[in-house]
Design goal:
Oligomer: single chain
Strand content: 5-15%
Number of strands: 13
Number of helices: 13
């Protein structure tokens, strides 16, 4: 019969095995899959990314928890288990690429407090090249712009959360991050985890930036600079773990014959037959789909507190699939005000809805939530697994062994 001393020794042993798996040093990912599965061609494509389930796309990194487009948000997204990490490409005066949601910087940096930069606040028109169609028009913007600063100057900035309802504790700690640094992080963390972590860069405001570059006497286009940098970093084929995205169809038309990278067209609005004809000529890999406008449209409640759905989902994802494209839906967020009332303030409800509708990828500010949801559905590691849990550290295993240990003590002592 076990003595009290031996019981507590067993408990300590079980708990100490968890303590050894320090979350601070664990490279992840959360809910790890069998290492051999990552090289299984039935599960993963030649680009190293999963083909049997929706992709986990970290929107601006793990931006729901950390300031967007920072090294911290990117590293955490990789450690949490994102398949791909998004970088909105913003070019600097010395033709480097930083990751920033927009090339204008005031919203998420302290540039407005930098007296030495005050004189560089200016106005540019950020519309696209189509007067008859709004691909991604922003109008005249007065701000500080990345292409008016060299990289060394931008390194002096610090970043904050873009949304006031999110965790402020990491504000003003991180500076800008380059595309190259993002790639280095994905490869470093991916090597530790034994899996491929890809990138999802966006050609942002190509036409507007090309006008500015041309006015400065530069002959090379924004897209050419981007393709050169991606090629330098090793992304140049359809087998590269990279999707290159854009809202402006003319930008994708320009790069199509210059690269073999997988291209994705982004849209927030329904498309005419004429637009579909243009898209069908581009040999796209997929389409980034605004889930709220195009799949499950809704409207504000009478008090403007939250939103209701209009009714049944549209068939837009089916149309995308009929054109032979993958549908990567954006943007999934956990906060209640980003959900419909019908979701019961439960992000899993919305994730379930889009899984059933056939999404091929979740753009999310919370990549850990997407990974946890796919684990919960038994789809994270294989389409045939009832549960994706395997040996190795994971939140579920940590909790389970601790509960087993204390349950054993309680049972034997009573």
């Amino acid at each position: 019969m076990l003595t009290h001393l031996s019981i507590f020794a067993l408990t300590a042993s079980l708990c100490s095995s968890q303590a050894a798996e320090d979350p601070a040093t664990d490279p992840g990912p959360a809910y790890p899959c069998p290492p051999a599965s990552y090289s299984n061609p039935e599960l993963y494509g030649p680009d190293g990314l999963p083909t049997f389930r929706p992709l986990i796309i970290a929107h601006r990194g793990a931006s729901g928890m950390y300031p967007e487009h920072t090294a911290l948000a990117y590293r955490k997204a990789a450690e949490q288990g994102a398949d791909l990490i998004e970088c909105d490409l913003a070019i600097t005066k010395d033709h480097k690429f930083i990751c920033a949601h927009e090339p204008y910087l005031q919203l998420t940096t302290n540039i407005g407090n930098k007296t030495e930069f005050a004189a560089r606040k200016t106005t540019y028109n950020m519309d696209d090249d189509d007067e008859n169609f709004d691909w991604n028009d922003k109008g005249d913007i007065t701000n500080w712009f990345s292409f008016d600063f060299n990289l060394a100057e931008l390194r002096r900035l610090r970043k904050k959360q873009a949304n006031g309802f999110r965790d402020p504790r990491y504000d003003w700690q991180e500076t800008v991050v380059t595309l190259e640094e993002l790639v280095q992080m994905t490869r470093e963390v991916g090597e530790k985890q034994g899996r491929t972590i890809g990138i999802y860069p966006e050609l942002k405001h190509s036409h507007a930036i090309n006008k500015i570059l041309a006015d400065r006497g530069e002959s090379k286009r924004f897209e050419d600079h981007a393709l050169e940098e991606l090629n330098r970093l090793g992304f140049n084929s359809s087998d590269s773990p990279c999707f290159l995205q854009a809202f402006e169809i003319s930008s994708l038309e320009y790069v199509r014959n210059k690269t073999d990278l997988k291209l994705v067209f982004l849209t927030e609005q329904n498309l005419t037959d004429t637009v579909w004809e243009r898209l069908d000529k581009l040999n796209l890999a997929g389409m980034g789909v605004d889930k709220g406008n195009l799949v499950t449209p809704g409207h504000k409640d009478d008090l403007k507190r939250g939103s209701y759905k209009w009714g049944e989902p549209t068939d837009f994802l089916d149309v995308v699939h009929e054109h032979g494209l993958k549908a990567h839906c954006f943007t999934f967020r956990n906060e209640w005000m980003k959900l419909y009332w019908e979701h019961g303030q439960d992000p899993y409800s919305q994730l379930e809805e889009f899984l059933e509708l056939g999404t091929d990828g979740y753009f999310s500010d919370f990549p850990l939530t997407i990974r946890r949801f796919l684990h919960y559905k038994g789809k994270l590691c294989s389409p045939r697994m009832g549960s994706s849990r395997v040996s190795g550290s994971s939140p579920g295993r940590t909790i389970s062994l601790t509960l087993i240990a204390f349950s054993l003590v309680y049972t034997l002592l009573n």
